[in-house]
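G., the chain you wanted modeled:
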Amino acid sequence: MSKKINELLGELNSDFLSLVPFINEEIEKINQKSVKDEKNLFSNEDTILITYADQFNEQGKSNFESLNSFMTNELKGVVNTVHILPFYPWTSDDGFSPVDYKEVKKEYGTWEDVEKISYKKMYDCVYNHISSESPFFKKALEGDEKAISMFHIYSEKEYGTEDFQENIKKVVRPRTHPLFSEYEINGKKHYVWTTFSKDQIDTNLNNVDMLKYILESFFLYIQTGARFFRVDAVPFIWKELGTNCSHLEKTHKFVQLIRAIIDSLNLNLYLVTESNVPHQENITYWGDGENEAHIIYNFSLSPLILHGLTFKTNQYLNKWASEVFKIGKKTTYLNFTASHDGIGMRGLEGIVPEGDIEKLCHIVEQNGGKVGKKRSRDGSEKPYELNITWASFLKDSRLSDEENIRKVVNSHAIVMFFPGIGAHYVHNFLGSENWQEGFEESGIPRRLNRKKFNYPLDLNERENQIKNDLVDLIAYKNSEELFRADKSIRMINIHEECLCFERYDDNDVIRVYMNLSDRELQLERIRLKAYDLQFVKNGKLIA
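Predicted structure as tokens:
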């Protein structure tokens, strides 16, 4: 085991040094069976599908088998990686309240089914919290002191002090409901730290038993074929009452510990951090470029694309993109549009005017969506995420069917031509509109973007065209090395209503044009229809 792992364990908590033999054994076990592929860290052929395990239901087959069929038959194999959203037993939040990190929800299939998926896999590491139905929390509610110490649980007396209440006010979090939830232990009222909901119990990472359980799951994920590891809600993962509990030093130390373990293994593994926060805070999870995440979610790109299309201007997108893609060779972005959580908004903070953000939120509500809010440091509430499908946000009755399709497909596609790895939520491929029935039945705004399907699919002409057009664009991206994550980019300000940039190396250059408006643009020697996307390589238009 590396010296770095030992150092980090000690810096987090000296009790963690007792885990050294366990970690050594797990690393040795994996390394005996694997050989590292010394290839480029990132490839232009990397594209990720984001999907729920039970997205497709097929008679007589497990959900994982149907997912594999969808990727092979519908996506024609152009997507080489699948991010399977939490597939562990769960009680709420569509998977993000895992009962046990180490089990597969039996309704979806088995670990054997997961391993049989014939594509690279990304798993969720939902280490910030766990379900209230988890065996550990159930033991805590029975008064088991060892289990109690695995969570942040306080007596009514502690919770009621003035200092405690003042400390709660310092905590930054992406929700507006109370930070602590009431639970009864041995007949007495206690208060439990619950960042996201009463059912999602925050874990105590400063506890050796909790850390061991988390690392056990992490090694299991590697052994069952995961190659990408998405650490969920990373900014809030380490708690210290009296601080803002956001981006703490030990949060970064924990990320560094996971990275150090990855670096000790003879496998090509990638650590991905999910932090829906302003850009300058988000990029801190690259650490020094080699000691934290390989990949961070690019939360600003998605709402900036929507902003450009809404206001028909490249002004803010160009300025932002000119600055943020100056990154090292060993780190990159996960570029995406909509996700299972909708469209994150914190990435716009400090980039576009507040009034523009209000206009985007107004469009969401006009088009049947909902706006999720967060509580800021000053106590005010601000937009956190847009709960709406991408296609429902962009839908415009003034456009022809062809123009609406072009607008949806090309706005999804454009993100993967920027430096980074392109990721597409499953509904991107179908141009799904809001699932109002799901929202009305559940009362959960995020369900607007989480409809499930029977398989084989029964697609209409519009859905088929969106799927096929997006697949064709991914295939083109895969064929061009200039779209590899580490290739250079320069933004071109050719016309305010056109997003234009070049990807290049010493020998070749591809210029990318996207019309952000509903009118035809004539530029240089190229004509762009409404919402058109075109490519010119070394001066020659790509058909």
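The two ends are 52 Å apart (CA to CA).

Shout if anything looks off.
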